[in-house]
Design brief:
Elements lengths: L26 E10 L16 E6 L2 E7 L1 E4 L5 E11 L9 E7 L4 E8 L11 E2 L6 E4 L5 E4 L3 E5 L3 E3 L4 E4 L10 E3 L6 E4 L2 E4 L9 E5 L5 E2 L6 E6 L4 E4 L7 E4 L3 H10 L1 E4 L8 E4 L5 E3 L8 E3 L3 E8 L4 E9 L4 E4 L5 E5 L12 E4 L8 E6 L10 H4 E3 L5 E3 L3 E9 L6 E9 L4 E4 L3 E5 L11 H7 E4 L17 E6 L4 E6 L4 E6 L3 E17 L2 E18 L4 E3 L3 E5 L4 E4 L1 E3 L10 E7 L11 E5 L6 E6 L3 E9 L2 E17 L1 E6 L5 E2 L3 H5 L3 E5 L4 E5 L3 E4 L3 E2 L4 E6 L6 E6 L11 E4 L2 E5 L7 E2 H4 L15 E3 L5 E4 L4 E3 L3 E2 L5 E5 L5 E4 L33 E7 L9 E7 L2 E9 L2 E7 L5 E8 L5 E9 ...
Parallel strand pairs: 1-8, 1-9, 10-18, 11-19, 21-27, 29-35, 37-43, 45-52, 70-76, 70-77
Antiparallel strand pairs: 1-5, 2-3, 2-6, 4-5, 6-7, 7-9, 10-13, 12-16, 14-17, 15-16, 17-19, 20-22, 23-26, 24-25, 26-27, 28-30, 31-34, 32-33, 34-35, 36-38, 39-42, 40-41, 42-43, 44-47, 46-50, 48-51, 49-50, 51-52, 52-60, 53-59, 54-58, 55-56, 55-59, 56-57, 61-69, 62-68, 63-67, 64-65, 64-68, 65-66, ...
Length: about 1000
């Protein structure tokens, strides 16, 4: 239905904008229309306002529009008609024609859908239907009054109603205009589209939304001129409040308590629920529904436990209600009239035995307690300082004196009984800060002989130390405290009246200090409360030792260079007092230390006691720790610093520097995690059934080994290699035979390859042009006659290498002694990989292939890198060094290697035309392997880049149409300047390449200008 056209008060109706275009169709069907209220004889005689319009529609499209015309036939008769020219073409032949009337009122205009009063008309090209004397009749009875069938309508959230179902018009057979519904106030509770109202949000317990149609020219029937919509949110869940989830207890006839809970003891969800919920009793003879003005309330009339159920349309909850019999009185139990207790005692530990709640069949026999003044004290006396009521935790005695305790029924406060309470100042428990006290036997007169304060402070009287009262004001008669020494090593005397203790050291020895206290105290029994004589006692041990003689330390410390170790001095004898100023700890290397090096190891105190230290190694080797007391050495410890070697699953080329690994049984040293070890001239293999076999019987310092760790759990080789002196005695000379040599690495620090194998010296190594040093995972370097060049720039500690001698003669090669180079930092043996676009796993392969390639001048810049592939699997990579590409490939014999080229600036990936079989090496600096570059690889095309949806907006990289995993920004030279960030505000102006990695594994690249 088209929107109702409304006009402001006082404005004449204008031609409706129903989309009529008289030039849209070539043909037409002319219809002369008149309106009738029912009789065909009166068709056209109803007087219509001047600006009344009639529209004709085919398939919902306005095809004709006419304003009312008037033809006066006589003084008494004027014909009102509409000359409709219904536009169409041959495709519209036989289609139904519908009609719509715009009828202007005094304040608003109204739109009606009209039906023929006789037979319907269909479209016919070039036809004329009706004449002035025989108009085509449309039925139109104007509504004069309207009203609503009810004042309020309730609608559930999410439901929809038709507002036309609640409105009536008079006459009853009048045409119904298109209605525009309005609300008195904007509301988010409902949504009105056409005549459909949808309930969106609860209007609350009493709220509603007033809705009315704009019918300003019609009169109201006098019943309802608008309708109030209450949006009902049914309860999806009903929950009792926490305090009622376990049920409630009420007295017989206590309607107030019961109905208070029924009214407010629950919560509903959602929060805006306004559904009317009803309670129902499981036994209406026990919990009786009330009537009259109390309807909706309930009366508990029978003891027992029942269920009250609160229900709504979709949810309900049960409340357990226990109806109980009340308490009549409380009687004391036992013969005690006065309760005697001590500071710190909890009165509630005995009081429940001193009373009985009656009758015994009372349903709720619970009580509460109230501290009151003693009958023997003025009301102003601070009785609440004597007994402190901490609620459920207890009622505690805090000060000596008198008070009174009342036991009061929770159900019937008139039922109660009281006790007089006497609080004494004395202990209920004797403990000690130390069960064992140790003192040093004094040597000089100025040393400590008197230990009175130490003994006194070690004794803990809970809650307080007893105080002798001369006049026994609070019935503390018969109380006594005795402290005595049961050893002749300590002389001790205690006077309770004066609270005076003296104790002194007599001689070396040991024994007990005994403490006992006796008095009277109220206890709980099965027969009630009873005052009882009791005694508490305890003792602690005292030892008199000789004074500090020295320290005990670990005689041998075995550690590795990549971790620290705690070192502790234990006083001798244990517990002897230590003056930190008397202690001196030093560590001295037992192995050679270069003058350029700081040290191989340091030791530092970790606190002010000078008993706790940290050993911090800088190198493998040996050292001695010296501990001195007053300048005299009293203890030594020998430190051995070895190497820790860790390797995950797969192959690694390894070299040990901290010591060798020797075994009688390889299973003991290597466990079952190693699958295979290779040296230059021997093998060791781990058979799944028979274990290790082969001719490698140890792993020696400075040699190169290829070690493979198994894939299965734990997938890790972890060796702690004891220092054996191999590093100190490292062999600096090595003969390099023609072709391939296994090159051990004797260094414990990382070093630049050109520093280690320098040729600047007169007596330096004489390498051949084309000689090559190859690593497992860090690339390789080739000697160009002046220096080593390539992707391998650093010899890493713990890793072995392969050396290719390009000449036919043996080379005498000298390593630089590590002591002549700067001291580094001990590192684990894990290689450091640079960030790269190529992702591959070298661990499954024992060997690799090294290639020096020439890709031509167009692809010699450092921004180009090469990936090596076996099939679709990346097996290695190459970098541009001085115009040549140094490629390392991890593969097996018989596999064919293909290549791809990546441009870090443009992001393009290109094929390389050549392939080659896997071998040890190919190409050299003098005769590089020639590779030619092909086309762009499918999947990263120029079209991808152009449609990537990557742009820089207000200093931020925006990406559209992709599920982004990472964003990398490179400058024009290919260097990465940002990873994982989308802001480029801090970057200087220039050309950048943005690489977007998607979660489905694609990389899309775009060149941007900032």
């Amino acid at each position: 239905m088209l929107s109702l056209l409304l006009y402001a008060v006082g404005m004449a109706a204008q031609q409706p904008d129903w989309g009529y275009n008289p030039n849209a169709y070539p043909d037409e069907h002319v219809i002369y229309v008149g309106l009738t209220e029912g009789s065909l004889d009166n068709c056209g005689q109803k007087e219509l306002p001047e600006n009344t319009y009639l529209g004709a529609f085919i398939d919902g499209e306005c095809r004709g529009l006419a304003k009312v015309q008037k033809k006066s036939l006589s003084v008494a008769l004027t014909i009102n008609y509409f000359p409709l020219r219904v536009k169409g073409d041959t495709n519209d032949e036989g289609k139904a024609i519908s009609f719509r009337l715009l009828y202007p009122g005094g304040q608003l205009s109204y739109v009606y859908d009209l039906q023929p009063a006789a037979d319907a008309v269909t479209y016919t090209n070039k036809k004329t239907t009706g004449t002035l004397s025989d108009l085509f009749p449309l039925k139109f009875i104007q509504p004069l009054y309207y009203g609503f069938t009810q004042e309020t309508v309730s609608v559930k959230v999410g439901e929809q109603i038709n507002l036309l179902d609640y409105i009536t018009f008079e006459p009853a057979n009048a045409n119904i205009p298109e209605l525009n519904w309005n609300m008195y106030e904007e509301s988010e509770n409902v949504n009105i589209e056409g005549n459909k109202l949808t309930a969106i949000k609860s209007t609350g317990k009493y709220g509603s939304v007033g809705v009315f149609p704009k019918l300003w020219d019609m009169k109201n029937t006098g019943q309802y001129s608008d309708i109030n919509i209450r949006v009902i949110q049914p309860a999806t869940s009903i929950e009792l409040r926490d305090e009622y989830k376990n049920g409630i207890t009420v007295n017989l006839g206590d309607t107030a308590a019961l109905n208070t809970v029924l009214r407010s003891g629950y919560t509903t969800a959602p929060a805006d629920c306004n559904e009317e919920l009803t309670w129902k009793s499981s036994d209406e003879t026990a919990i009786l529904p009330m009537i009259g003005s109390d309807i909706g309330k309930f009366n508990p009339v029978k003891t027992g436990t029942y269920t009250m159920t609160l229900s709504g349309e979709n949810a309900s909850v049960d409340l357990k209600v226990t109806v109980i019999k009340p308490v009549e009185y409380i009687t004391p139990v036992g013969r005690v009239k006065e309760i005697k207790m001590y500071i710190g005692d909890n009165l509630l530990s005995i009081l429940p035995s001193g009373y009985k709640v009656m009758p015994e069949d009372a349903t709720d026999r619970s009580v509460h307690y109230e501290v009151l003044p003693s009958y023997n004290q003025d009301q102003e006396f601070k009785y609440n300082e004597i007994l402190e009521d901490n609620g459920s935790e207890g009622i505690f005695a805090r000060k000596p004196g008198r008070a009174r305790i009342a036991i009061i029924s929770n159900q019937n406060p008139q039922a109660s009984c009281t006790y007089e309470v006497i609080v004494k100042d004395g202990p209920t428990n004797i403990t000690f800060k130390q069960e064992e006290m140790t003192f040093l036997m004094p040597i000089k007169d100025t040393d400590k002989w008197d230990i009175s304060e130490d003994i006194r402070n070690n004794i803990i009287m809970t809650p307080s130390w007893p105080k002798y009262e001369e006049y026994e004001s609070y019935d503390i008669a018969q109380s006594n405290l005795d402290i005595s020494s049961l050893t002749d090593a300590v002389k001790l005397y205690y006077d309770f009246k004066k609270d005076s203790l003296s104790a002194s050291v007599v001689k070396v020895g040991e024994g007990w200090i005994d403490i006992s206290y006796s008095s009277e105290r109220t206890i709980a029994t099965e027969e009630g409360l009873r005052n009882d004589e009791y005694e508490i006692s305890n003792h602690f041990h005292v030892t008199i030792l000789e004074s500090l003689k020295g320290f005990k330390v670990d005689g041998y410390v075995d550690m590795v260079s990549t971790e620290t170790r705690d070192f502790v001095l234990t006083p001798d004898p244990v517990g002897a007092e230590v003056d930190p100023s008397r202690v001196e700890v030093t560590i001295t290397p037992n192995t050679y230390v270069s003058e350029e090096w700081k040290s191989i190891v340091e030791i530092e105190p970790t606190d002010e006691t000078m008993l706790n230290y940290t050993i911090k190694p800088h190198s493998v080797g040996r050292a001695t720790i010296s501990v001195k007391l007053d300048g005299e050495e009293v203890a030594t410890s020998y430190v051995s610093i070895g190497q820790r070697y860790m390797q995950k699953a797969g192959w690694k080329w390894t070299s040990f520097y901290g010591g060798g690994v020797r075994w009688n049984s390889p299973e003991y040293e290597l466990g079952n995690v190693v699958e295979e070890i290779r040296s230059e001239d021997a093998l060791l293999h781990n058979d799944p059934e028979y274990g290790y076999f082969g001719d490698i019987y140890s792993l020696e310092t400075g040699e190169c080994y290829k070690i493979k760790v198994k894939e299965e759990e734990p997938g890790l080789l972890d060796l702690r290699i004891m220092y054996t002196g191999g590093y100190e005695d490292m062999q600096t000379h090595r003969q390099i035979v023609p072709m391939w040599n296994w090159l051990g690495n004797p260094y414990q620090y990382d070093h630049d390859i050109n520093s280690v194998f320098s040729t600047e010296d007169t007596y330096a190594n004489k390498f051949n042009v084309g000689d090559r040093i190859v690593s497992k995972d860090d690339g390789f370097a080739e000697y160009n006659g002046e220096k080593w060049t390539g992707t391998l720039t650093t010899l890493r500690a713990g890793l072995g290498y392969m050396y290719f001698n390009a000449a036919s003669d043996t080379i005498d090669m000298e390593y630089l002694h590590e002591g002549s180079m700067p001291q580094g930092t001990p590192v684990m043996n894990a290689p450091q990989h640079k960030q790269s676009v190529w992702t591959y796993n070298s661990a499954p392969f024992a060997d690799n292939m090294t290639i020096v390639a020439d890709l031509g001048n167009d692809y010699s810049a450092e921004r180009f890198t090469v990936g090596a592939f076996v099939g679709d699997e990346c097996r290695g990579e190459g970098e541009m060094i001085d115009g040549k590409c140094f490629i390392t490939v991890h593969a097996d014999k018989g596999e064919t290697i293909s290549f791809k080229l990546h441009d870090a600036v443009s992001g393009e990936m290109r094929t390389i035309n050549e392939q080659m079989p896997f071998a040890k090496m190919a190409g050299s600096l003098r005769a590089p392997q020639r590779l030619t570059v092909g086309g762009i690889v499918t999947g990263i095309t120029a079209a991808d880049i152009a449609s990537s949806g990557i742009a820089i907006v207000d200093g931020q990289i925006t990406v559209q149409g992709m599920d982004v995993a990472d964003v990398i920004v490179c400058n024009a030279s290919g260097a990465v300047v940002s990873t994982g960030e989308t802001t480029v505000a801090g970057l200087p102006s220039g050309v950048y390449v943005v690489k977007v990695k998607t979660k489905d594994g694609k990389t899309v690249t775009k060149k941007l200008v900032k």
